[in-house]
Amino acid sequence: MTLRVMTYNVHRCVGVDKRLELERVAEVIAAARCDIVCLQELDVGRRRTKGVDQAHRLAEILGMRSHFHAALHVEEERYGDAILTALPERLVRAGPLPHYRKIRGLETRGALWVEVEALGTNIQIINTHLGLVPAEQQAQAAALIGDWMAGDAWTAPALLVGDFNAAPYTRTYRMLARALRDAQRSLPFVPACTFPSRFPFMRIDHVFLAGPWRVRKIETPFSGQARTASDHLPLVVELDLQPPQSGL
How does strand 36-44 pair with strand 3-9? Predict the structure, then answer.
């Protein structure tokens, strides 16, 4: 059995053609046939996107359940990240990440942790969207590696996924890659870029692995619809668990 996991920054379901089309995003997700879908930049109850609870509506269309964490509140409006799945699941933790206060107007950031039952075990998965300022990113990565993943609840097999706004040459990426394994570094795969969606040349969306994962496939859907639905392409990783080593 395999597990298909997607990370996808959906840009509040507004495409590069400036059209708000939640159903188009749902079609891109559905075409990838994933078991766990981790989304960033969702609006919930915001006037600019017609007041729709995008996390709930996407889950409804896809026949899944959703957990949403609002990294940003604007009065009653919310904006943040979600994990969708039809597998048995439970919320473990949701909360803020360190905020860089030296620059005014930066978005606050957060993370969402759900435990999913799959492949005969419980899998920990954290979805996040890091900031744009390198110092802020590094503080957020340190919080994830330390505060979030240091406790007894974080046990392999586990995944840390999301839009990290950090390419492989950055210090933020190197911090995370020392603690976890980048799924796209598994041979024989050639790492795929996801941003910007029309002409992707940046690799800032990542799936990091903890535990005996085996990477079966890496996909970045590149249909006309996928290239238009958001400013990011989805990143899909197909995984299974390697059998335990028998003792001698």
Answer: parallel
Tokens in use for 228? Answer: 């238009």
| Structural domains of the chain, count | 1
Whole-model pTM above 0.85?
A: yes
Domain that holds residue 230: 3-241
Residues of the chain whose pLDDT is less than 50?
247-248
Residue 77 in tokens: 């409006």
- 196 phi and psi, to 5 degrees? -75, 160
- Domain assignment of residue 247, yes or no: no
The CATH number given to whatever domain includes residue 53 is 3.60.10.10
Burial of 228 per CB tally in 10 Å (0-12, 13-18, 19+): middle
Bridge partners, residue 166, by sequence = none
**Three-class secondary structure of residue 43 per DSSP:** strand
* Residue 142 vs residues 29, 64, 193: alpha-carbon distances, Å: 30, 32, 24
Run of H or E including 108:
none
Flag whether 248 is in a domain: no
CA atoms of 181 and 238, how far apart (whole Å): 15
